[in-house]
User: Which sequence fits this backbone?
């Protein structure tokens, strides 16, 4: 096996991705996010799947530069987001999925915990970045809260994965007026949600200006 | 959007996956693991990618039934494994990636933290289940430790993702004599590592006997 030094693995990976993308032109503002998602998944489908509303990357990076918090629907995504870089910007990441009051609210209202966790987030961090990597019901509840003007996310990263309600929940978010980055179709995941957040953090570190 | 009740989402998802797999016959012992990986990723490539050594699923489930611990190379995988079910079996999951002594050892020896974390694990939990979802260097180090007879994993889940050293590291593990479940090729991830562990836990819950 060819020895690639640890410090060179990431840059070499991005060179390979770049080469395999070939002639295809990507919007330079969206490109770092698309590239990092492919880096995280080894799945070039994200070249097609990832959809960005106008100005979404600027909204996302502006929010994080301004110290916006991130709300996510899984402990895995929370765990995958670069906390050191987040702290440097004065941001935090929250996941309410395991909270006792969320469990109780979900049971009482016959919804999912993911949906109830969005209600809790709306009361606390309504202007946050929402990074949804797992539960379509979280995305559907976000859609409702946005339409009811109970919440005004700085940006929504809508990348739940799966076979039931997933495709539809993403299409719903894309009909709102909030800035979004959505992985259209079935694919996505907590790893993708974390990768998109991290890509934005690295863009800020590298001096990105939109 | 058709309303699917939260409690029915998972079973409906598995019905859809079953339908799309169609006539293809899967080894019934491996099938729950393949299905859950597809459920986690919405990626049917895992029908082809997932490779099982003879008896690997039995080794994995026997180990967990016997209270074996799991060592993983990412906090994300640790975060995604069902801790409640793990605790019921008397198992725990460990990730040493953020440990100060691992950071120091990696720096001193010019290796990755992932590699150093395997050395630490070898001293503490050499007979554990190893679930590698991110770092090929962790898998390469496992290969070396196995060949040096310094470690004897109950099973290796080898599913790092990426473009550099990933394919090769998986092929190396498949040359050892330890029971393995490997996602051949570039694909995998912390989510896949967690999904395979969880699939094994659910098989045990559901009374799986090999």
Assistant:
């Amino acid at each position: 096996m060819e020895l690639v030094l640890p410090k060179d693995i990431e840059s070499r990976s991005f060179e390979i991705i770049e080469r395999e993308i070939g002639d295809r032109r990507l919007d330079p503002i969206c490109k770092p996010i698309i590239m990092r998602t492919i880096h995280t998944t080894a799945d070039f489908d994200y070249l097609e799947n990832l959809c960005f509303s106008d100005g979404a990357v600027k909204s996302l990076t502006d929010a994080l530069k301004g110290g916006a918090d991130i709300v996510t629907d899984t402990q895995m995504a929370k765990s995958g987001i670069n906390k050191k870089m987040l702290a440097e910007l004065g941001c935090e990441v929250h996941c309410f999925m395991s909270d006792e009051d969320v469990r109780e609210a979900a049971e009482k209202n016959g919804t999912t915990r993911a949906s109830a966790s969005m209600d809790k987030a709306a009361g606390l961090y309504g202007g946050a970045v929402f990074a949804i990597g797992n539960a379509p019901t979280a995305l559907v509840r976000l859609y409702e809260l946005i339409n009811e003007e109970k919440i005004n996310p700085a940006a929504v990263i809508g990348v739940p994965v799966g076979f039931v309600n997933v495709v539809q929940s993403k299409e719903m978010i894309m009909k709102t007026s909030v800035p979004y980055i959505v992985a259209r179709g079935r694919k996505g995941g907590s790893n993708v949600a974390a990768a998109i957040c991290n890509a934005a953090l690295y863009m800020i570190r590298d001096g990105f200006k939109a």
